[in-house]
Design brief:
alpha/beta, 22% strand, Rossmann fold, 7-stranded mixed beta sheet, globular, binds S-adenosylmethionine, 205 residues, 6 helices
Length: 205
């Protein structure tokens, strides 16, 4: 389960330029939409969507009136697609940056995961958990979807299992929800975990 090439910014930008974006659902996915619907409503909570791609979750939240939604991605074309679709999305909330290098002035309240974790070199998974914890305030949440399956093709995407993922997140997070998703997109049904993890107060980063 190792990448056969370097998964850097030029790799991802190349995927967008070549229109090889099979992961792109073209809209917010039902598990994320259903989670957002039950939030208390538009407020100033700071939300980050890392590896956001074309940013359908950001579009949805922005459309619901959330003023503090941020996206980070290393591929300029991904962020440009969001900017074109949603011209009034704040340009300063489009971060053309490596997730692992983000050092925000203020911590986030919520991180949203959607086919970003599975796109990374699996060797970066412990660092993903650590960086997610570093970006969140104590009590802040990391929520979203993780594949609970292995893929026969070489990645990305890279698969994995709930037991594997638990070990990465346990040092930093309490597990509010960590179970098979019941409302996945059809092609992903039975192959996704819905996660909602609360950042512990005391963590060693
Ligand atoms: C599989 S795509 C998923 C995009 C989006 N979340 C979606 O579901 O449509 C992975 C995204 O992560 C971005 N990416 C990869 N490595 C990154 C990194 N280290 N920091 C920020 N973004 C990254 C890629 O450019 C790509 O847009």
């Amino acid at each position: 389960m190792q990448p056969t090439q370097k998964l850097d910014a030029s790799y991802w930008q190349g995927r967008y330029e070549a229109h090889q974006t099979g992961w792109d659902a073209g809209q917010i996915t039902p598990p994320l939409r259903d989670y957002f619907v039950q939030l208390s409503g538009p407020n100033a909570r700071r939300i980050l969507i890392p590896g956001a791609g074309r940013g359908y979750e950001a579009e949805y939240l922005h459309g619901q009136g959330y003023p503090q939604v941020w996206v980070a991605d290393v591929a300029p074309d991904a962020l440009a697609a969001l900017q074109t679709r949603v011209p009034d999305f704040p340009a300063e909330h489009l971060l053309l940056q490596d997730f692992f290098a983000l050092t925000p002035a203020e911590p986030f309240d919520l991180l949203v995961e959607q086919t970003f974790f599975c796109a990374l070199d699996p060797a970066q998974r412990p660092a993903y958990a650590r960086q997610s914890a570093a970006l969140l305030r104590p009590g802040g949440k990391l929520m979203g979807l993780l594949f609970d399956t292995e893929f026969s093709q070489p990645g990305p995407p890279f698969g994995g299992s709930a037991a594997e993922y638990r070990a990465y997140f346990e040092p930093y997070f309490d597990f509010v929800h960590f179970a098979p998703a019941y409302n996945s997109l059809k092609p992903r049904q039975g192959r996704e975990l819905f996660i909602c993890l609360r950042r512990k107060t005391e963590v060693k980063l």
